[in-house]
């Protein structure tokens, strides 16, 4: 696994699964054109761009470029890098026919091509000594698996200016992207002290 600082924004869940086997970072799927109306995903992408930078990694077809340009336009501050795959004709294994334009998407190209594309856009290595927030931390702090978990998560997302509908897993990814462990613990003390 290659640890990188920047979060990677991809089109779909299959792209996310493929990249999660290569890179140790937050990977955010846009849901394709759903990004145009999904304010929660837009907010997460904007926050990630400001805190750690993002790499937009969409397919090389027209739809991929429309999504790429939309993301570039909604991120008003922060770092946005772009990674591109070459136009390779073919179809993904899970599909019965090639895409409309006949090119492989991110999920269909080889791992070496993906690594090369991400490296070319100038990634930063993650701090290997950093203490990350874990699922066990969320449980111990009452944010998952407990009677008041939803209430505490809602309080935390409000305090961090995040969408309240964010899942526990995405919350964990976002916390680790935007804050270090000590900052997270300070927020927990703040929300639990304010009861």
TrEMBL record:
Alphabetized Gene3D superfamilies for the sequence: 3.40.1360.10
Gene Ontology MF: a single term: ribonuclease M5 activity
InterPro entries reported in the protein's UniProt record: RNase_M5_C, TOPRIM_dom
Gene Ontology biological process terms, A to Z: rRNA processing
Ranges for domain Toprim: 5-89
Record-given protein name: DUF4093 domain-containing protein
Species of provenance: Qingrenia yutianensis
């Amino acid at each position: 696994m290659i640890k990188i600082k920047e979060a990677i924004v991809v089109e779909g869940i299959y792209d996310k699964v493929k990249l999660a086997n290569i890179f140790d970072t937050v990977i955010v799927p846009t849901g394709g054109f759903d990004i145009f109306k999904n304010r929660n995903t837009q907010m997460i992408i904007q926050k990630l761009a400001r805190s750690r930078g993002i790499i937009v990694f969409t397919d090389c077809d027209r739809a991929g470029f429309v999504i790429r340009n939309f993301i570039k336009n909604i991120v008003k501050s922060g770092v946005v890098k772009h990674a591109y795959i070459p136009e390779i004709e073919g179809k993904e294994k899970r599909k019965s026919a090639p895409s409309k334009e006949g090119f492989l998407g991110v999920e269909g190209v080889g791992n070496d091509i993906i690594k090369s594309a991400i490296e070319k856009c100038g990634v930063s290595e993650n701090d290997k000594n950093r203490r990350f927030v874990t699922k066990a931390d969320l449980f111990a702090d009452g944010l998952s698996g407990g009677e008041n978990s939803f209430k505490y998560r809602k309080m935390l997302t409000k305090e961090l200016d995040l969408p309240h509908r964010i899942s526990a897993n995405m919350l964990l990814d976002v916390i680790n992207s935007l804050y270090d462990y000590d900052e997270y613990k300070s927020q927990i003390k703040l929300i639990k002290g304010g009861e």
